[in-house]
Amino acid sequence: MLEIRHNSSYNILMKKHFFSNQISNKLGSVKMMPEWLADYPDLRSQIKLIRETLGMSQAQLGKLTHFSWRHIQRIESGPAHPKISTLEKIANALNAELKIMLIPRQNLTEFLDAKATQKAKQIVGLSKASSALEIQSPSDEETREQIEATKKEILEKRRGSLWETCGTSTRTFLPARRL
């Protein structure tokens, strides 16, 4: 039974090590992280705060992590861009965990704008097809204005609709058309 626990612990440790290496290989260093992630939360301040709370000097942390105290000083003061593996060693020495956060693949504002534009085109397209049947098809300029107005309304008031499929209830999103 003891052997099974050892193997289980070993497997968990190996999975954690493999995951950490994947993240480390993908990002490489703090410098490669998006600015909002590298600065939030401010890892430099957290390292210093935990180290000082533990009553540990930079030299002592350096000795525990096999780095020079100057390297620890550069990490805490900002000019250094440590590797993820370096941060893991520091976290271990401080009896802390390094947590990885979700990182958007692109700027969220740009992503929402593109998604809202796509949704607005679907909605206006349905309206345009319906209008064409009634022989009232709007001009291209009116269509562009409707798309922009619909996109604006989606982003401001109905952002949740971006994650629903386009159906017959979408007519409620259309702004009043100028005649």
Question: Your description of this structure?
Answer:
The protein has 179 residues and is mainly alpha-helical. The chain folds into 2 domains: 2-93, 434 Repressor (Amino-terminal Domain) (Orthogonal Bundle), CATH 1.10.260; 108-173, no CATH class. Helices cover 63% and strands 0% of the residues. The chain has 8 helices and no strands. Helix 4 crosses helix 6 (84-93). It starts with a helix and ends in a 22-residue tail after the last helix.
Question: Can you tag this structure with a few keywords?
Answer:
179 residues; mainly alpha; 434 Repressor (Amino-terminal Domain); 2 domains; 8 helices; disordered N terminus; rod-shaped; single chain
Poorly predicted spans: 1-20, 168-179
Q: Gyration radius, to the nearest Å?
A: 27 Å
User: Number of helix segments?
Assistant: 8
**What is the arithmetic mean of pLDDT?**
75
Domain count, please report it: 2
Strand content: under 5%
**Element pattern in H and E:** HHHHHHHH
- Look up the CATH topology of the largest domain: 434 Repressor (Amino-terminal Domain)
Give the class-level CATH name of the largest domain: Mainly Alpha
Form type: rod-shaped
Detail the topology: elements first, then pairings.
Blueprint: H1 2-27, H2 35-38, H3 43-53, H4 58-65, H5 69-77, H6 84-93, H7 108-133, H8 140-157
Helix pairs in contact: 4-5, 4-6, 7-8
